[in-house]
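Appendix B. Extra example for self-study. Work through it before the problem class; the solution is given directly after the inputs so you can check yourself.
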Amino acid sequence: MSAYSELIKNFEKIRAYMRDFYVYGFKSRGEYNTKSSRSYDDERRRMESWLGDHMSFVRSKDGKNMFISIDSRVISHNPLYRAWKTKSFTDRDVTLHFILFDILHTPDIALTLSELLTEIDTYLADFDEPLALDESTVRKKLKEYTAEGIIIAEKQGRSVAYRRAGDTFCVKDTDAIHYFSEVLPCGVIGSYILDKQPEHPDRLYFKHHYITSALDSDVLCTLFDAIRRRCFVTLNSFTRYSSDSSVLKLVPLKIYISAQSGRQHLLAYDTRLKYIKAFRIDSLSDVQIEDTCQEYGELRAKLDSLSEHMWGVNCNKSERLSRVDFTVRIDPDEDYIVRRLYREKRIGTVEKLDESHYRFYADVYDTSELIPWIRTFICRITQLSFSDRTTENLFKKDIEAMYKLYSVGGEQS
Amino acid sequence: MIFSELYSAYYNAIAEILTCLIKGEKDEATLRQAVQRHAFSDSVLTVLPSLKSQKWQLVHSDMTTPVRNIPTMPLTDLQRRWLKAVSLDPRVRLFDMDFSSLSDVEPLFTPEDYVVYDAYRDGDPYTDEQYIRNFRTILSAIKEHSTVKFETVNRSGRNISLVMLPKHLEYSQKDDKFRVICAGHRFSNTLNLARIISCRKCYSVKEYFSCEHKRETRTLTLRITDKRNALERTMLHFAHFEKQAERIDDIHYNLHLTYDKEDETELVIRVLGFGPLIEVTSPQSFRNLIIERLEKQKSCGLA
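Solution. Structure tokens for the complete assembly:
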């Protein structure tokens, strides 16, 4: 049985726990039944160590429920990024890392493997029991660092010389890196850059800030790489409600991000189903980049064409369009509602009917995606017509249910 | 590889410890602070003992180090590719950054590779020269703790002039807007950056601006009925609030959240968006705001 460590080897295990602790937060220890109790205790202890004050608990009849509670408006840096800075390493890894970069402390120094080995020995000579860093270990580390782009390998006659990569980029403005680390995809990479800068006060804060997507950074990063390279990917797709997962082969086309829920979707061509559909990124894992897709340009153009009728992320298989049409009453002193309609209409059209009525209409693949938005106009909807009658009836039934729920107009629940 | 020890909190802590030792700062408190600054609450139990015991052979028993230069590491390809992606974002012009050294780097992604599909369309004009000038003046004033004279447009469309002490900038991705949060004004502490016509640093008695604007918060309890995936949708939608959830039975949950009073109207419409699947149970004043809207809706005669 290995001893507890706050560092981890595999991120996938903690990803699900952190999401459950942050998004839900009402599960007790006994409900995390897919893993052993010891595993739960270790993961909880790690999160307590990483996130400190953001971890809370309540006692319920089922036991102690741990959860992560963060008011994202008062924190300037996404605390979930800390989880990405916990990769475990061996004693040799860390010793070699600092010695190697000390030997190669400027890009002007280029040494062969045997020269490096001699230098490394002099660093270790004064320790009581010097670590054995043999040729194979050092060669492997150099290869790994060359792949990361921090070491450059150059042919010198029949041997290879190694030097550190030149740092030509200068982080002049930490506010810029901070800002983009919170608002751009894969922002944790910006956070890694900030970690190496001198401490600076926080001058930027964020409202409506969804931080959960940080947990999907690895998946997202590989998907972006595949999109840039126009390649197929194979990946695991799983659901939250069961342990089932399936391996899919997809052509990743674009990432769709919601600023209103923090959800991220991959829009991709499914090679088995033979159409473009949306996949939630928090339900994907183990993304592997495969061969180049020859039809990539056509598929991306197809998605661009579909997007003209997508309210959110859904584009149906049959590509049949439904009309959504509603009218709202807006009083003369309610210009802000008119502005709301225009700024929130996305692919729809807004028309002024008369001094106090505005009409919105759109042809979309999935009417149900508009429902939450249309409900935000409750108190002023005077007319509503969907060609998808089932959804229209459900919408009206829901309003009736709300009247009952709040006992409006004498109706009782 | 995004999950790598190269970016780990431990490596950052060790780099700072070695820097301290190279500078001759060997006292325990300083070294512990280095661990606390970069790593986690349990890390002090591992990092210093591993160095002192020569498990990680970077520090001798007399607390000297064979490392001669302050530890640094070049940017990885992944970091360079992400920075290149930053350079392609239109908002980058707000900042003073030079990306010319990344000319041969492939971006990790471009603005064409992703879309924020539900951000509002009336976002700030990031390429407008006056807007950029205002942004930079304000950011510089925040750094220097300097007061600023703003010429701005108020909510009723009138031009006004204000002297305030900007404390920080706040960005909302949903609104795609920056706001300046200031101290010292009796009526308001927030200015929309896009409404500022011009601004300049000025010198005023800072004591006048010393009072920090306190956020007035309120709490709200929602009862969720978990049908049509409402539980997950609600929890994700309200994830950015300080909150606590509890299960009542197999399909009902209570969600207690804390919100800013100034955002109450926005929260009312966000709650309405969930229809009958979430019910405001307290406070009654918030419940009344929902009832008021439903009563108005009932009078709209929607068949």
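Self-check: The radius of gyration of chain A is 27 Å. If your reasoning did not lead you there, revisit section 3.
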